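Technical appendix A lists one of the benchmark inputs used to test multi-chain prediction within the project. The record comprises two sequence entries:
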Amino acid sequence: MPEFTLTAHARAPVEEVWKLLHDPARFPEWWSGVETVAVGAAGGDYTMWPAGYPDFPMAQRVRTEPGDGRVTISCLVSDLVFRWRLRADGEATDVEVEVELPEHEAHRLPGQREALQRSLRTLAGLAESLSP
Amino acid sequence: MLRLRLLGALTGEADGRPVAMPAGERARALIGWLAVHPGSHPRAVVADALWPDASAASARANLRTAVWAIRQAWGPAADHLVSSRAAIELAATWVDVADEDGSSAPAGSGPPASGGDPELLPGIPDDWAEQAREAHRLRRGETLADRVATARRDGHATEAVRLSRQLCRLDPLDEAAHRNLLECLTEAGDKAGAVLAARDFAALLRAELGVRPAPATRAAHAQLVTATPAAGRPVLFGRASQSRQLAALWRAAADGAGQVVVLTGEAGIGKTSLLAELVHRAGLAGGRTAVGAGGDVVGETPYAVWLELARALVATAARPPKGAGWPVELNRLAPQLGARLGESGTPPAVTAPELERLRVFEAVLRLVEWSCADRPALIALDDAHRADRASLRLTAHVGRRLGRLPLLLVLIRRDRPGRAELDGVLADLAGRSVPITELTVGPIADAEVAALAASVLATADARTRPTKEAPTASTPATTDARTRPTNEARTASAPATTDARTRRTQEAGTADDALVRQVIAAAEGNPLLAVESARVLAGGGSGPPANLRHAVRATAGLLPPAARTLIHLLAAAGRPLTSDELDRLMVPDAGQAEEAASADGLLVRRAGRLGFRHDLLREAIYADLPNPAPLHDRIANALDAGDRAGIAHHLHLAGRPERAAREWAAAAAYARSVGALTEAAEFLGHAVELCPGDGRLWLDLEDVQAWQGRRAEMEAAWERALELLNGADVVHAWCRRGRQLRTVVCHPEASLRAYRAARAASAQGPDPETLIGLAWGEAVVGDPAVGYALLAEAEALLRTHTDASPAPPPGAGTHNDASPAPPPGAGTHNDASPAPPPDAGTPAAPLPPLRDRTAGTGPPANGAAQTLWSGGSDDAVAYADIAEIRMQALIRQGRFVEAARIAGLAAPGALPDRAYAVWINAACALTCAGDFDGALELADRTIAATEPVPVLLLAALAARAHILARLGRHAEAAETTRRQQACAERLDSPELAAIAAHDAGLVALAAGEHATAAALLGEALDGNAAGGRISRPGAGLSRAEALARLGDATGAAAALRSAMLEPVGRADQPWSLVPRIAWVQGLIAHARGDAGLARRRFAESAAGWRSMLAAATSATAEGYTATLLDLGRPPVVGLVEPERELARIEEELRTCPSSP
């Protein structure tokens, strides 16, 4: 299965990154390609509209696993899976994301890698700006 | 004052002068009648009583004559006879029979009649006189029995004998009184007297009734003549110092300083004898004593040692007051335990093994506390190194609390090999500051060995005399060798006079000294070896045996055939046997066999059981058995039916694998029913090893592995079971798996799949249980509407199955007008319902609600094999399930009030776990709906329903506390959490204690008790390191909030950081954590004096909560189900209320100063 892993270092405490990562309503602020989000019930499911495709709602799910401390965000339409993990580094935070694509979406890997790299940078910058 | 004595001759005195009695028999009878019937009586009544066969007129005339005769005889004292035309009485008269103990005797009247047991009103043959004599005899017996008990308790042995003899004279055929006399004589050191009394009593029974004494009396006689030490009358060599030390420890414990003493030493060194001495002393001092011994740790019934201890405790404990719940809980261990305390019922099932274990622990602890309530107690575990694991765990549980009790806990252990579990118990107790004294029992000095050997040799000599006397070499009197000649025979009950004995031992002295020296060389200070070596030498051996086995072989070889059979059977049994078990062995001439083997020091009766004097002797005999299998077969058929593990063990050794497998399964069912899962898995492991083709056994094993949380082993057993089962068994197996995944493992999606497989495998269509299981899956993770339809189907089937039974509870019926309407779309279940999502591991084993129905129901009472396999369903349970599932379906849709209404209709009745599940969910549902008063009422109802089951009560108390806190009744809430914490502490579960601390911390936070809250929440997080039962991120945030409120910004920031690194699950409701983090950040900023940042954070938090308002109900509903599934209890504690949170923050914003 095609996959890749990216890391970033945010000069912001882990709680700032945590809030951004667990709040789908804020994904458009840092996640490249996510234009709009509609959060439904509180169970972790939400709907995302990709940038440039206002007529294509994509059902998404945020899941947290107590076992490994990761946040998994999966697209219920395209089967892309993003696994995020945060590690505190003093007043900074190491961010890691593993991305899995289904075979039939393999051609999207380079684009996803680039988008996630941008997203990580934005996420780190946003967290930094929010921290006192 | 007139003083009349009716006992013996009728006499009287008035004002210090004798009063003559009339000569006529009827006049004397009249005095007697009036004396035993105080008060005024109509003349007609008195006349009729004294002259029943005369006409009324004649009787009255006789009465007048008798009165006249009395007046004539009494002279001036006749004024005490007050008579009129209508009535007659004795006035101002003291009567001996009415004042047995002389407590109200007037001055100068002297003691009551004593020096024997004079008859009441001798020579008066009337019926009323007979009745008076009988009543007097009974009263006298009771008084004497009390005085005997008091004398024994106070150590006045001679007085006890005197009184006991009087008691026996009252009713010479009373066997209990006779046995009591034997005990008193033995305690007084008059063993010869005891033997004579036993002989006379047996002769009396033969002469009077033509019968033999009852078995208990025969056993007491056998004990006397077979050298078995009388219970609690141990006599030791060379242990005076340790004996004194133990006695001092006992006294300290009895004064209320409960403690532990550990006796350690090599096998045969005399630990058990020291214990027996201590038990004897404790008993004499009025203590309650109980001794249990560890046995074979392989295949031992769980709690075997504590079963023995509990039996001993309930035998003498007073009956607890009516309404005490714990005696019936003891029946979980063995039915007769509670029955002995007046509670013979069946304890309510809870079904989760861990909860069963906690209930067993609590019940036994209560028994121990109750046993210490009226007198101090000594509880001893002999051979603790061989005790079963469950007993050791329970010992630790009791041990942790003995500091508050007048209790001495004695543990006897060998110095090697080590037993890690026992070391763990002692380390645990030491870590909790329980006082522990460790005494090492070492070899005795050569002089003591010499004395011991001389005693054995002298005893062997004594045995050659016609009357077999009791050689007490194994337990000679506690005394130091220096106080006596080394070759003096120390036979406490030697019938010969001291002079005769001395003369005899002097004659034998020279020869004995040589033998004694050989014994000293062979024994190396070990009393057991000394005794056995001396026996061999006394029997004519040319030298001491090479080892114990040789010694025992030599002794056993001289026994008669029946005695050899008996010792072989006991060697195979591996533990002492009860009289009933011995009877079932049908050993010919068992009494003589026991006598012979006991006389040679091999066997001994302790607490009514016959076994080897020392286990090393048993091992030696067993090692010499050429073919023990037939013996094991006999033992298996003779053992108590409750000892399933023992029966299985012997059947296995007898070469009967299939029967052994069934018994192992039955033993596992019992083990599981008392929460001993490790043992249950072990027993089932033996069972499948013996019968690997039995799918049901594999299924039972799978169940136990599931409860142990061993998923890999569980799956392996499941695969084997599925391969082997067929037909209806497959349906049942899938159903059972569905239930496991619904309860034990809590994996709703996988449960749903299992129930679907059960439905697919069923040729006749699904049964109610399958439908209910499917409905649960749909209710919590699938489509609630489909769940509703399935429940309707289940109910229809239940009604069909039980046409004749009463209608289901209203809450469970779909057609009841009061029931909430099914959700829109509810219809017939669709077989093509969507496939469930992939498995997701949810490892937490939840607290109740618990629904498993496969629990064993206590130790099997009959011989039938019992397995975990359980077919059929209990309608009451099914209807309670239906009500609960319907509630969950409604809750998941946010229809809280409707859900609570179901509880009011369901009436879960007397099933504590079902009542808990229904009421607690209803309370929580009303809390979610904002009806806190209604919720409080339901929480109180939950508490009432769970009072007998502390593990359920905990959660009920937590719910009550949080509802009270929500109502602003903080003092009551705090009081309730204190009760919850006390309850958790007693249950001795770190996990439950951590949960209670967590709940109390949140209540303290709500009350503004920030320091308390921070401490409790810290305690909860430390104690719940493994997580799984509380929301750790949530608890961490609450702790950070408390610290920030205290002004500790640094501590709060650290707590916040820790919370962020906690694993997060769906029960943590991550969506709610985001605004809570901002809130805590605001408080920290506030504490640091950064008002601007504080306001910004508060505003951020408020925005977060505000965005949730629209979906608050569905968020609460989702959070509810997630909490229920992952944490195992409804979210009354820490319920997330966006609206309330928003109001709180807005208030903070209003009061928080703006930045300059």
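Chain A has a mean pLDDT of 85. Chain A is about 25% helix and 40% strand. Comparable benchmark entries are summarised in Table A2.
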